[in-house]
UniProtKB/TrEMBL annotation:
Highest taxon of the lineage: Bacteria
Family annotation (Pfam families): DUF1707, LiaF-like_C
InterPro entries (alphabetical): DUF1707_SHOCT-like (IPR012551), LiaF-like_C (IPR024425)
All copies of domain DUF1707, residue ranges: 7-59
Protein name: DUF1707 and DUF2154 domain-containing protein
Domain Cell wall-active antibiotics response LiaF-like C-terminal, residue spans: 89-157
Region (Disordered) location: 247-291
Amino acid sequence: MSDLGDMRASDAEREQAVERLREASVEGRLTLAELTERTEAAYLARTHAELAQITADLPGGAPAPRPQPVKTPGKVKTWVVAVMGDAKRNGTWRIDQEIAAVSVMGDVTLDLRQAEVRTREVEITATCVMGDVKIIVPDGVDVELSGVTIMGDKKVQVAEAPAGQNAPVVRVKAFVLMGDVKIIGDSLADPIKRGWFAWSEWWWDRRKEVRQQFRADLRQTIDGGRQAHREIMQAHRDATREFRHVQREARRGEQEFRRQFTRDDREARRESRREGRDTWGDLRRGDDPSS
């Protein structure tokens, strides 16, 4: 009989492992980068043993559900402000409330990768006036960016998790006036030191397989789109040629009709003049034209 650890994991068991990882993050046991990596690994795990490796260094048993904090209009925020200067938050730091980043002719950098996130989601309000706000997150999180931009720019450059995964969420509400707000992932930032665990090797291999498959599917989709575009353009050219051919035939028919009409009109006029001359001649001779 095979070992129970080799038994295939179900989707429900993966979701339970992800929820356990979220609880560990709220308790301060995992940073945002570790939570993101382990969440992705949990969805890629195939057996009970692999799921157990991901949570082996966490307390066993599901913690009691804790009440969700009630959001009040006057809740406390963590402020990061730069006025004609620079402000950075990186390394190990704690996030247990909403973050307010303000940049006035300055630069604000928030590196969330090694932060201990004590909330279910990370909420950031970024206000930027003639400055820059850069937020660095681990690749694999879900980023929701909203707000208003006037003569500025706000954008997300993060490799987000596949659809259907319960990945960590970072919500950013940006108000930009002649400035920039950017949310970037690991691939566009300086690397950080990461731990190596028993599950890291197979997670890394499967992550590469998933990304290679994604790139292959994307390439196939692009090739299919290009082929469809070529077929559409060829059909358009064929339809244009057919339309021009029909137009030329119609023009030729119209010209032939006009020429035939002109010939018939001229012949009718000549016949009418001939009859008129014959009638006039008969009248001058005194003959009755009707006889």
